[in-house]
Amino acid sequence: MSATAHPDVRSDVAALRRHRLDLFPDPVVPFGDVVRAAPPGLVPAAPVEPDPDPVGAVRRVLTGLDGRGRELGAVEVLLADEALTAAAESRRRIAAGAARPLEGLPFGVKDVIQVEGSPTRFGSDRYADFRPATTARVVRNLRAAGAVLVAKLATYEFASGPNSRTRNPCDPGRRSGGSSSGPASAVGAGLLPLAVGTDTGGSIRVPAAWCGAVGLKPTLGRVPRAGTPPLTWTMDHTGPLAGSAALAGAALTAMTGVPPADARPRWPVAGAAPLTGLRVGVLGGWFRVAEDEVLRLVDAATEVLAGLGATLVPVELPVIEEIDPDAIKRILVAAESASLHDAGDDLDGYGPVVTQLLTGGRSLSAVDYLHALRCRTVLAGAVDALFADVDVLACATSAIVAPPEGVDAVALGGRDRVLATVVARNTSVFNVSGHPALTVPCGRVAGTGLPAGLQLVAPCWREDVCLGAGVAYEAVAG
Q1: Does residue 17 register a pLDDT over 90?
Q2: Do residues 146 and 93 lie in contact, with contact meaning Cβ atoms separated by under 8 Å?
Q3: Up-side HSE of residue 206: CA atoms within 13 Å toward CB?
Q4: Under a CB-based contact definition with an 8 Å cutoff, are residues 136 and 115 in contact?
Q5: Active-site residue, 365 included
Q6: Which residue is catalytic, options 110, 152, 217, 329?
Q7: 244 catalytic, yes or no?
Q8: Which ranges of 96-222 does DSSP label H, i.e. alpha helix?
Q9: Which of 90, 118, 124, 179 is catalytic?
Q10: Which of 224, 345, 399, 408 has its CA 20 to 30 A from that of 98?
């Protein structure tokens, strides 16, 4: 792993300093005014049809993970005994007509999500022997909905970068992305129907796009994070990776642990094409700096949405040319990680990238950190303002397809760029803003056959909008 995963944080400070934040006449609003603290209830998700033989299904999943899953480097720990016990309980419930919403559905979790008594390494040698005394709330919620936990899945150390130990199932010589690399590889390979990852700047959506899976970063604060130690407490999101947008929606409902509200999705409109009336803001400018084949597939995908009744509206986010969301992300991650891992001079057991991250975070001043937070509110407010004219935003999830392992620079937009500045180019802005964002596979590029992803972004707390568009797109595109 190259240290280029975390560019010099001082250059990010200098970049953001160029954007003045005078207090008068336009004060910067508190971030909570952009992402309100009280979310409306989720729209009920479509039920998942249970497998009539969950024990057999779980056995097949365990076999696949123990075989190809280990070959891909996607698996940290198999939880076979616990999984088969839970599957037997699911079989009894199905036979009794008492199936829960996700009864018998196998799932895995990224190895930063704690499970009581099971090894949880956070991808770090420093925690090689750690066995937590608690189970993360999101795992408890999924189990309460009937889902069966089968495995802990690989990640990079403390979810801080791409994991080179995990291979891309579409081409093992390519990167799988990070940091939810194990979940994306396992789901993309068809070894698991569902996995849970975390996303600080694109760590669910980028690996999902590169590995051919669906990935959802919910609204900031939608999914409980208790028992999931953060990389940064102000931008981490927990969300599902799945084989379909419909399953991602069903999983999201279960993950929150909150019964759905008696609400109805805005889409589809009865008696019309599935997306009639939906205004899709097709992001230009910054979001069009991407490989030609990726843009071709994304443009074709938005035309599919138009064919389903949606209206395509060109939109831009000019402030992003001045305030780099990745610079905001890197400053906040460095500062907050340094606080979370406040171990003095004891950096034994940390890898080189995390050591660089923590050292950089300690070099930041309170003024640097607060300036990044204030730039964040400006950018978040600008994203939120786009939804006055459109219902959902669309762009490429990743500007590039999965690059070969060992490559740390790519040609993009007419010049060579450090890979670390490209990977989260289109995703980190929505971690900064807190808006829900879904990636769905939108085809494979000519020549390599590697998958590309279409990213759909909705207003805060309206996951039903991006999921509804994703489900409609999948029904046509497959």
Answers
A1: no
A2: yes
A3: 32
A4: yes
A5: no
A6: 110
A7: no
A8: 137-144, 181-188, 205-211
A9: 179
A10: 224
Which residue is it, tokens 């936990």? Answer: 149
- Cβ contacts of 126 within 8 Å, gap of 6 or more: 348, 349, 350
Residue 264 has pLDDT above 60, yes or no: no
Q: What is the pLDDT of residue 40?
A: 67
Q: Which residue type is seen at 256?
A: T
Q: Are 122 and 102 in contact (CB under 8 A)?
A: no
Distance between CA atoms of 216 and 232, rounded to whole angstroms? Answer: 18
Q: What is the pLDDT of residues 359-412, one digit of tens each?
A: 999 999 999 999 999 999 999 999 999 999 999 999 999 999 999 999 999 999
Query: Going from the N-terminus, what domains does the chain have, and what CATH number goes with each?
Result: 3-477 (3.90.1300.10)
Is pLDDT at 13 greater than 60 in this prediction? yes
Catalytic residue among 160, 176, 203, 428: 203
Q: Does 160 participate in catalysis according to the annotation?
A: no
Q: Are strands 167-168 and 171-175 parallel, antiparallel or unpaired?
A: antiparallel
pLDDT in tens, 162-171: 788 999 999 9
Tokens representing residue 347 in the block: 């950096």
The predicted model scores a pTM of 0.94
Tokens coding 457: 């972004």
